[in-house]
Amino acid sequence: MSIAKTHSAQLIGLSMEPVSVEVDISPGLHSFSIVGLGDRAVEEAKDRISAAIKNSGYVSPKQKNQKVVISLAPADVRKEGPSFDVAMAIAYFCSTGDLSLELEDTLLLGELSLEGKIRKVSGLLPLLCQAADHGFSTAFIPYENIHEASLAQNLTIFAVSSLGELVLHLSGKKILTPISPRQWSNVIEPYSDIDMQTIRGNETAKRGLEIAAAGAHNTIMCGQPGTGKTMLAHSFRSLLPHLSYEQALEVTCIHSAARTLRSEIITYPPFRSPHHTASYPSIVGGGAIPKPGEITLAHRGILFLDEFTEFSRDVIEALRQPLEDRHITISRARGAVTFPAQCILIASMNPCPCGKGQGMGCICPSYQVEKYRRKISGPIIDRIDIWLNINKVDYEKLSAAQSSSESSHLIRTRIIKARQRQRARFTRHAIEKYFNSEMSAGDIEKCIILEKDVRELLTTSAQRLELSGRGFHRVLKVAQTIADLAGNDLITKENLLEALQYRQKTL
Description:
Layout: E1 3-12, E2 15-27, E3 31-35, H1 40-43, H2 45-55, E4 66-73, H3 85-96, E5 106-108, E6 111-112, E7 118-119, H4 124-131, E8 138-142, H5 146-149, E9 156-160, H6 163-170, H7 203-215, E10 219-223, H8 229-236, H9 245-257, E11 271-272, H10 280-284, H11 294-297, E12 302-305, H12 313-317, H13 320-325, E13 327-332, E14 335-340, E15 344-349, H14 366-373, H15 378-382, E16 386-390, H16 395-398, H17 408-428, H18 441-447, H19 452-465, H20 469-486, H21 493-501
Parallel strand pairs: 3-4, 5-8, 8-9, 10-15, 10-16, 11-12, 12-15
Antiparallel strand pairs: 1-2, 2-4, 6-7, 13-14
Helix pairs in contact: 2-3, 7-17, 7-20, 17-20, 20-21
């Protein structure tokens, strides 16, 4: 009997933390212990491993008079979840002599059932994508994770369904075939969202959403109940292009780590719509070991906050930093984790608690209206690029036999061209950005050139509207996106005036 060693891994935030599994067996009365700061799921693994080994046709550790100690290193890092089961079982086989091989460059992941089956685990894709960077060349994963794992590159991956099957492969008795990476072209799915053409009226709002989609601008829609704010928000995703392979892999890794992955891969920009009773940690992320929140799950997609003013004030104010920096850092006593948060905020709200608004039969006392408006502070308003006032429903357009609106496909074509112009501009100036909304003040100086008359108009308008420095730059960003949609390199007066009309100074 000797010491044997295998390797597994876990996620801390979105980063891979390799875990070495060491097993020592010595003679004596039976005992089985797991050390290394494991949680309850890790502690219970000794019973799963013993039953799985027995039901795979081998002698259970509990049937032998021996002392088994399993160590998970590094010992000062908290271990969570059942994904270490397979690595511990294989290390035990190596220690008893049933297997004789070195597994220094092999990653073992999977949960064991009592009958010896290997169950699916969460957070697998980000581990596989980072495995090669940590020196691993081969990985054994649960068969149920095969579709998710086939997206990983630079790694030889074997999908196994049971512990017995894995032991036969490692002993050379029944060699498995590694899974083949899938082609990205075979993964992309067609759009299934609400088409903009089905929405009657609200042409100004549709134009504003087109601009928001082209430049990834944060947007608020304000209007009476029933005017179509929610439907417009749900149709907004149909305007966005499919994710690229790198973006889809990044988004899928986030959702796999957060245990919210419902499909093999996410090819659409994600759409997250938390209820207004959502807590602070659920929106920004949190926990003893920080987990991604809704703003991270909406990365590369849309965070839709319906009834924006009904959210807790703390939740709304927590959006300040991630809306500006496009990432969020969660700090806890055990350390800090940074999550990406590059999403488009689409919010909707009513003009007052009753929803009717001034001049439309509002019955709200003035103090209630003031309290309602104070939910959204000036700094948050400053971070909103586009403010859309949604008008009352036009019944003639609703009852029309056919819609005269453009389809999402046609609008999306313009948006793709505008985004290509943005990327080409950033490439020329060696700026690593995707959208106009991400430009810093320095980027604006490099990329945006204004004619004298346009600059004078902007200065005069900024003074009259009392724009902050941030608001001034955001008007420029929106104007540049409007110019990109029109195919212009320079911002015209018309582009600037349209951008200014979307600016909301106060509520």
